[in-house]
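$ ./design --mode recover --in tokens.txt
reading tokens...
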């Protein structure tokens, strides 16, 4: 038996394929007989006379099949794999706004944790200032932290910091808000970050925006529907729409929304299931979740709504503990509510699957206490 091994065949000039005036004859058992025989068919019935390697999209059953050894075999896709991160989130959670009520001390500390794996947070780096009541949002590659209240000199801040969530280290100066204020809502679709409401000498309806990829001062975007809106973490959204829980001094359940691409005033979305200031908000690609609240009971309620469908929120489940002013963040599937519990540890982190309504489960603990509205966001870990 003669064995012929050939890596490549060209014409005599070496410039292209050979010209064979007569098609070569190949034995039925020769390996070459199986080359260049692949075909693709999309139909509801089995293709006739297939050859090894042929692909068939079985449109009647929504399955991909390949023809091997005289049989059609179904290709199983791994549906349990986690979806890719949204442009505004990632698997790394970051949180700041550390405050210890026992000695009335604030910190510029940033902590980080892995949203996909239960485990305590660790140190990440520092902000450029030591604010409380600031908030964070951003893209998978860059996190912004804006505004806040400086305990050291009793002033409100207009500072916006930024850092890469993938690279532990200290934050850098990004620019300034149009108005120095604390206790606002921060939303992002990965391109624009909206800074909503807040407080200086009184409550504001001011909405600014920052282009996340470009450092510089924020620009006026529009107004919330009420100037009485107390700042809140109940701010989140999807790729095109931002939703903001107004939290009117704990006496309102109103939710506003904006379209990121179109500067302008807010439009009414609907209502949460209960009144309450300072709920925690996070979202996946389609659903927003709001958890905890500062109200008469400092409740543990979790609500949800579909971001592209205006209307009232629906009950999702409950947190492990009552939470007055929690922070919240999410990756593409899992939400985390953290800090400022009114029962149990203020280092607590709860988690839930955003597409599956149910009570939250204990996630882990923050390495240091976070009270008075901690700021949380997420981004890519690498």
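writing sequence...
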């Amino acid at each position: 038996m003669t064995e012929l091994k050939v890596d490549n065949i060209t014409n005599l000039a070496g410039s292209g394929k050979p010209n064979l005036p007569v098609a070569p004859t190949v034995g039925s058992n020769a390996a070459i007989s199986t080359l260049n025989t692949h075909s693709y068919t999309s139909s509801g019935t089995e293709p006739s006379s297939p050859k090894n390697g042929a692909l068939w999209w079985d449109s009647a059953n929504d399955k991909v099949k390949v023809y091997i050894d005289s049989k059609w075999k179904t290709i199983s896709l791994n549906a349990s794999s986690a979806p890719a991160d949204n442009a505004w989130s990632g698997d790394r959670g970051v949180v700041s706004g550390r405050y210890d009520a026992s000695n009335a001390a604030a910190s510029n500390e940033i902590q980080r944790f892995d949203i996909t794996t239960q485990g305590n947070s660790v140190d990440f780096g520092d902000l450029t200032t030591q604010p409380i009541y600031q908030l964070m949002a951003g893209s998978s590659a860059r996190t912004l932290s804006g505004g806040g209240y400086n305990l050291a000199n009793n002033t409100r801040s207009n500072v916006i910091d930024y850092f890469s969530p993938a690279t532990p280290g200290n934050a850098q100066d990004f620019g300034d808000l149009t108005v120095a204020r604390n206790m606002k809502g921060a939303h992002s679709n990965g391109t624009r970050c909206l800074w909503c409401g807040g407080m200086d000498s009184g409550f504001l309806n001011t909405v600014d925006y920052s282009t996340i990829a470009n450092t510089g001062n924020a620009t006026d975007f529009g107004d919330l529907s009420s100037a009485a809106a107390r700042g809140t973490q109940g701010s989140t959204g999807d790729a095109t729409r931002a939703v903001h829980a107004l939290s009117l001094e704990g006496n309102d359940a109103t939710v506003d929304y904006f379209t990121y691409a179109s500067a302008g005033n807010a439009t009414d979305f609907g209502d949460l299931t209960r009144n309450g200031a300072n709920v925690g908000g996070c979202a996946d690609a389609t659903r927003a979740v709001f958890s905890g609240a500062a109200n008469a009971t400092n409740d543990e309620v979790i609500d949800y709504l579909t971001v592209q469908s205006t209307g009232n929120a629906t009950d999702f489940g409950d947190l492990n503990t009552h939470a007055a002013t929690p922070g919240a963040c999410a990756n593409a599937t899992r939400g985390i509510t953290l800090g400022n519990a009114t029962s149990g540890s203020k280092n607590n982190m709860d988690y839930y699957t955003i597409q599956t309504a149910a009570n939250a489960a204990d996630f882990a603990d923050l390495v240091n206490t976070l009270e008075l509205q901690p700021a949380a966001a997420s981004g890519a870990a690498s």
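exit 0
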